[in-house]
Amino acid sequence: MLKIYHTPPTRSVRVVWLAEEMGIPYEVVPVQFGGPHSPEFKSASPLGQLPAIEDGDVTMLESIAIMQYLLAKHGPSPLEVKRDEPDFPAYLQYLEFGEAGLIAIGNAYVATRLRAPEDEKKNWTVNYVIEAIRQRTGIVAARLQDHEYMAGGRFTAADISVGYALGIVKFFGLSELEPKSAAYLERLSSRPAYKKAAGQV
Ligand SMILES: N[C@@H](CCC(=O)N[C@@H](CS)C(=O)NCC(=O)O)C(=O)O
């Protein structure tokens, strides 16, 4: 069975959320954030980062790639926008943007906040990251002015990608969410699959 190394609120939430939405059977292996880590987890995720999966002989890391793998393996699914749909390019863009554009840069903020010595917690880089994330949430806000979801006129994996990132922005108080983004996040986080993945039920 698909094994998901998962500890909320890390990015493994995206993978469990997708598995729940698609009805894919899986087993959760909890991981202590920051270690110590089991040899099995270290072999699936040499950097010690969440998420990682094991699926038969396959091991993978990177939350977006894992979502694409599960969609390809267990699809077709309405959670994907297909290449013959007009919003296919937008789907790809926001699927990747949720991680690469929006929240990857946030790791520097989280590491500084959790691990830096007291007198280095408010340095130039932290301010740079906060400003970068503020600008990037603006891209999502602009999309939401005339779209209910990121692509395809429906809830898709792109919303799992972006919605998870917005949740982290809110969790750490990284940027004020404008009303449509706040309502979008509310809409996504009221889904039973999200609640399960986030450990809320
Ligand atoms: N781009 C990766 C990022 C993975 C990542 O940074 N995971 C964080 C938790 S959300 C982590 O495990 N950090 C611990 C560390 O870097 O030591 C993904 O999307 O899966």
Task: Summarize it.
This protein is of the alpha+beta class. The chain has 9 helices and 4 strands; from the N terminus they run βαβαββααααααα.
Question: Would you write up a description of this structure?
Answer:
This protein is α+β, with helices and mostly antiparallel strands. It has 2 domains: 2-74, Glutaredoxin; 88-191, Glutathione S-transferase Yfyf (Class Pi), Chain A, domain 2 (Up-down Bundle), CATH 1.20.1050. 54% of the residues lie in helices and 8% in strands. The chain has 9 helices and 4 strands. The protein has helices at 12-22, 39-44, 63-74, 88-103, 106-115, 124-144, 157-171, 179-189, 192-197, and strands spanning 2-5, 26-29, 52-55, 58-61. The chain has a 4-stranded mixed beta sheet, covered by helices on one side. α7 (157-171) crosses α8 (179-189). The longest helix is centred in the middle third of the chain and has 21 residues, at 124-144. The chain is globular, with a radius of gyration of 17 Å. The two termini are 22 Å apart. Bound molecules: glutathione. Glutathione is lined by residues 10-11, 48-51, 62-64, 99, 104, 107.
